[in-house]
Amino acid sequence: MSGPVPTVTALHDIYTQQALADQAVRWNKLLDKFQALYGGPAQFVSRSPGRVNIIGEHIDYSLYSVLPMGMTPDVIIAVSTDLEPSQDGTYKLKIANVDNERFPTREFDVSYSDVEIDATKHEWTNYFKSGLRGALQLLRKKYGADFRPKSMQVLMDGTVPAGGGLSSSAAFVSASALAVMIANGERDVDKKALTEVAIVSERAVGVNSGGMDQSASVFSERGSALLVSFTPSLSARPVYFPKTNPELCFMVAQSFVTSNKQETGPIHYNLRVVECSMAAAYLNAKLLPKGTELPKDAGPLGVSIRGFHQNYFKDTQKTMPEQLTELVELTKSTLTQEQGYTVEEVASGIGISVDEVKSRFMSSFPVRGEHFMLRQRALHVFTEALRVLKFLALLEDPAQAPDSEHTVEYNGKLGELLNETQDSCRDLYECSCSEIDELCKIAREAGSYGSRLTGAGWGGCSVHLVPADKIENIKKALLEKYYSKLQLSEKDLEEVIVVSRPMNGSAVFQLTGGKF
């Protein structure tokens, strides 16, 4: 599926017919505001969408395949390079947001030598600067270390809710990196290169994502889910749902519990990355011959559970489902401490010093924890990777295809896998919350086949696999039993529930005279 990010000249190349009218109003507002703010027209707009993950939660950074899809909510960035730097040895950045009350305009004189980002501050422009830094690394690799970027005027608008579990940060960073590359003369930006840049770039703001979010934002195609794989290298391919009766839809419902990965990472998201990496090293030390090194790979800390997996089954003839089933049992018999492991116990199990554990696993980004839940995290990763394969087999294995006019039983099998994912996220990975649990319970009782959290968790959004003929019933139940208890504005109520169709990924919209 690799190839260049598409360049488009019409909104219908990006959005579905249902979304066109609202998007035309929004884009005109963006371009008019750009003209008013900067006194000249935008030259192009870069666009990257949010995503909803169907199944495969918190396993991308352990390098197991996941199944997300792009959505209508997105980040769009209007850009012009029609300005000059004000200081020698620098280029200028003017970064503004349509919602300038929440996100104030900033202006920077950036040194040619480096892009400074203070990840300790929750500053909205850090996401643009991280995309800038990643894009410049790619441009300098291509054109040499002396490459000098152009100054840029930028106006951003985002409809992906921040902290909502639909990956607003990946959409922002991907759109930003794409904007920088186009502004500096690139015409054919490779999707795979952009995705890899965006993955590394987001880590500059203290978020150690595995790559699913950026892959979905860049690679998604209208009408299909996306199977994203990370080994032996990053790849993505479309996956289509068979025709069902009743028709299947995805409903996304916000919890209005915000979890900002950058702010809560030390005790939530980043801690899980550390626990998975520790579990990989511990299992590798206990289950493989002494001296067997855990291979370096694309995991956030340079190693992953998948690396241990590949070590253990190096010359096997067993199928992947058989391997994962065996690894579940090995994890239960090897990582026996339900109460977790102290740093000292982790060090002893791996066979290295406490200082080396801290250096290897706890020095790359801020993390806080006294007991590391290696057993639970590894069990989630192996069972969730197995659920992705089962879900994929239901979609693509002819022997499991729905064979009757009425596919309620088939739909239920897909939904049950989502329910199992929610149970695992709640009980083993401990990344759910009572509000998400309640949304899932209400939706299931009203007719959802399967309901679970989507995204990092600890709040954000839930995703529900629902029959098309029950959409209104499920919406009504959620509004009456959950949202009626919250003090929500009319605008919030309009956006709380989205019936989602798979959407296109990143694109560049070339403008003529600042108009489309």
Which helices and strands, and how do they pair?
Blueprint: E1 7-8, H1 20-38, E2 44-55, E3 67-80, E4 90-97, E5 106-111, H2 125-143, E6 152-158, H3 168-183, H4 191-202, H5 212-219, E7 225-229, E8 235-239, E9 248-254, H6 261-264, H7 269-287, H8 305-312, H9 320-334, H10 343-350, H11 354-361, H12 374-396, H13 408-427, H14 434-445, E10 450-454, E11 461-467, H15 471-481, H16 490-495, E12 497-500, E13 507-510
Parallel strand pairs: 1-13, 4-6
Antiparallel strand pairs: 2-3, 2-13, 3-6, 4-5, 7-8, 9-11, 9-12, 10-11
State the gist of this model.
The chain is α+β, with helices and mostly antiparallel strands. 40% of the residues lie in helices and 17% in strands. The chain has a seven-stranded mixed β-sheet with strand order 1-13-2-3-6-4-5, sandwiched between helices.
